[in-house]
Amino acid sequence: MQERLKLAEILNKQLGLTPYESRAYVSLMIQGPMTPTELAQRASIPRPRTYDVLRSLVEKGLLMEQSGRPSIYAVVEPAQGLKNLLIATEMETLRQVEEKRKTAQTLTKLLSQMYEKSKNLKLERSKVWFTRRDTAFIAIYCEAIRNCRKEFLVATTDVRPPEKEILEAVEYALSKSRSLAIRVIRQITKLWTLKELEEYEKVIRTGSQVRYLDVKEIPLRFAVFDEKDVILVFPSEPSSAMPQMIEALWLRIPPLAKVLRDHFEALWGKGKPMLPVLEKIKRAKKKKR
Description:
eight-stranded mixed beta sheet; elongated; two-stranded antiparallel sheet; alpha+beta; Endonuclease, Chain A; 2 domains; 10 helices
């Protein structure tokens, strides 16, 4: 009895069968082929529900039906039956994803129109934002890059490669406006993979100006958009309850943007062209192959 209950629980919680479907399948597996009436009695399933349960299990490929008066139901060989179930589950999941994709596409057009009308109002109303550097922040950051008109400056102490979304936003912004200047000061390391190095090189050759500078020479991690918006990025204080997280302060204060731009120019003067450094690391990696 315990084994039967355990199997039914696994089928219900891990493979997605309903409680009645799980009990019906396990009963047929252990006690052999049955009519709907016999199954209702032995698996304690309400008789009006039995036919729906059996029909569902047949559609999922777990049972087969022998037509007659009454019909008799038996389990499909377990390896094949569970394979059928996984295929049915995958098809249903793909169907649901496709439905959500179509809904998202429809909503995107509507919501984008609403957002375009309100985003400038939101920015002017709130001059200081404090947020974590999470996926939502990355999305807003990328949008700001794509909307940049004149100049985008970045000085970063992060030695990891930038996220793919950021690289794509930079490429888009450069392709949209030839007059846009994007300059970055950062360090790259031998820990980057060859693929990451090549992806970053592609962005540089697209038009992004990048200079190499050791992170020890960069006291502050920041970005400046069109001499108006400023992002200051810094780690939070770790605690026993919460691990250290990256947090960001987003400010629309043009005088501060000007100060940081002047600071950026000083750092830019200390840096050296990134491409020779990048190509040297690439060559070293290729030799090790």
